[in-house]
Amino acid sequence: MDKAILKTLAYSDIFDYPLTLREIHKWLISKKANLRQAEKTLSQLSKKGKVKSKKEYYFLTRREEIVKRRLQNEKQSKIYFRKAKIIAQILKVISWIKLVGVSGGLAMENVSKKDDIDLFLITAKNRLWISRLLALGLLSLIGQRRKVGDLGQKVVGKLCINTLLEEDCLEQANKDIYLAHEVLQMRPLWFRDGIYSKYLEDNSWAFGFLPNWVDSYNLSLRGVKRRSNLKERLPRSLRSLAMTGLENLAKKFQLKIMQKPQGMERIEDGALYFHPKDVREKISSLYKQKLAGLDK
User: Fold this and answer.
1) pLDDT digit string, tens, across residues 90-134
2) 3-state helix, strand, coil in the chain (%, to 5)
3) DSSP strand E in the chain: where?
4) Which domain of life does this protein belong to (predicted)?
5) Could you give the C-alpha distances from 7 to 14, 27, 274, 293, in angstroms and in order?
6) I need a labelling partner for 271 at 20 to 30 A (CA). Which of 21, 129, 133, 223 fits?
7) Whole-angstrom distance, CA of residue 134 vs CA of residue 249
8) Per-position DSSP letters for 65-109, written without gaps between them
9) Centroid of chain to Cα 228
């Protein structure tokens, strides 16, 4: 249990992010335990000087300064969350989008004033490219899209759609502690057709890394029903044929203007990942270094 808590704090320390008791229990790495067990072990580690605390937050020794940073970032995150929720409602008009969520630092309320807002989208099958095109168009129309190459003030508070998945391509291929966190940290702003439950089911491997994770959302919430419109009154076969053609056109158009993928950017069947910086390898390396330091 000692090792599990230290590993959990070591991982969060990479992001300058101290944890509360309940958060330590929730994100406990590779160890099933109850809250009381976590509290007892934390007390023992504190007495041994391996873990320190300030206010309600726990952190590794000599890392007291990250408490102030977390509190500052929480204030900024609340501002960004309000903005993301408003814009997410605008994206509801695209009926093929089944989920809009926030990922990255904002999902953990850990962003600064200089950061952007990372959006996570799930779309209907064979509607990924047209959904992306329309979503980017809406963000551009309201002046809130972060464009490729934007730097400095052009990035601040802008929205970047960095992950798009089709409803039948939800399982993440790289199964490690970093991706487990990314999967479970993602916070839906809205979803329909029960797609969030399916997302968790298809990525149930993540619970092997984070077995205490408890979903804070109501998975029994039914998706928002779409109102009947002209598209739905058309014969199904004719509608499907027309939309497949538009999807292919949207894909060809976007692939033509896209820059060459770099870092963790990937273009796959039913999935798009736009993460130009390969942070996964960097975080994995830092995590190993911190674990090695704990053993000394």
Assistant:
1) 999 999 999 999 999 999 999 999 999 999 999 999 999 999 999
2) 50, 15, 35
3) 51-54, 57-60, 97-102, 117-123, 159-166, 187-191, 266-268, 271-273
4) Bacteria
5) 11, 10, 29, 11
6) 223
7) 13
8) HHHHHHHHHHHHHHHHHHHHHHHHHHGGGSTTEEEEEE-HHHHTT
9) 32
Q: Is the pLDDT of residue 240 over 80?
A: no
* Residue type (1 letter), 256: K
- Residue 137, token pair as written in the block: 């168009």
**β-strand 159-166 against 117-123: which pairing, if any?**
parallel
Best CA proximity match to 58, nearest among 87, 90, 28, 99: 28
Residue 276 has pLDDT above 70, yes or no: no
Classify burial at 142, counting beta carbons within 10 Å of its beta carbon; exposed 0-12, middle 13-18, buried 19 or more. Answer: exposed
Question: In the chain, what are the domain boundaries?
Answer: 2-63, 76-280
The residue behind tokens 């809009």 is 100
**CA–CA–CA angle 236, 237, 243 (5° rounding):** 85
Give dist(CA 23, CA 289) in Å, integer.
Answer: 23
| Class of CATH domain 2-63 | mainly alpha
CB 121 within 8 A of CB 133: no
